[in-house]
Amino acid sequence: MQYPENFxxxxxxxxxxxxxxxxxxxxxxxxxxxxxxxxxxxxHTFSMAMIGMIFSDLENYNTEKILKIILLHDLAESITxxxxxxxxxxxxxIILENRVIKKILNDLPSVLQKQYSILWEEYQSNKSxxxxxxxxxxxxxMALQAKIYSNxxxxxxxxxxxxxxxxxxxxDPKLLELFRNILEK
Length: 185
Prior knowledge:
Elements: H1 7-19, H2 27-33, H3 41-59, H4 63-73, H5 77-80, H6 90-105, H7 110-125, H8 129-151, H9 156-169, H10 173-184
Helix pairs in contact: 3-4, 3-8, 4-7, 4-8, 6-7, 7-8, 8-9, 8-10
């Protein structure tokens, strides 16, 4: 593959945008639990990737595809920040994130732009089995983090909305079993 003359700068720009996720706090933990220094979006993505890798390999899903979707699923937040439903409607968030992800991917080589855009659209539309699993893994990881915060002494009552959200969205029987075990620990 032949790269454009400014390829290194373009790739480094993409890497810097991605690395910015390490500085974006998860807003729900701040707003609902008043956590001063909550996990970052990058922390969440890493944890999700570990869960996704293990689950996908055990259940014979397309692990590479699941991991790529996980890595892309919150990438727009490197620019928009982590917006919660109380801040923006679901429709507005989708429009904004679609515009931002297009801009982020725009400077990558066209083959990557196309591949990542397809995966992004797949995740947004929630039509493929991998996209559906990633949405559920997102909720499972959130429940795991909520349980970690609960074990650190944060209000169980305030954490219930996170657990209820996970309970309502996780449908896969194996993920539901993991979710139940998280609650019991």
